[in-house]
What we know:
Elements: H1 2-53, E1 59-62, E2 67-73, E3 77-83, E4 86-91, E5 95-99, H2 103-106
Antiparallel strand pairs: 1-2, 1-5, 2-3, 3-4
Amino acid sequence: MDFISRAFGQGADGAQSSIMSFLPLILMFAVLYFIMIRPQMKRQKEHRNMLAAMAKGDEVVTNGGIVGKVTKVSDAYVGVEIAEGTEITIQKASVTTILPKGTIKSL
């Protein structure tokens, strides 16, 4: 009878110990989520909203550093005039920034 009560007592300590050993791992994941994952999701949402609001006539900067004026917008691609009479077609997702109007003339 004494053996059974000791066995149950040891089992309870073992279960509590395994939960406590996972606690630091769970805390590290929570910190990682709030420091890295959540801000990245916020930036992605802002970028999607910026691309959805892009319209003809906007001045943009691409991932490659090309600056130009939007001439046409479709679902996946954007026509960008980089010089007078020179137009390129790029993927919409490669636009990183929409500049204030008149920025290209000041360059």
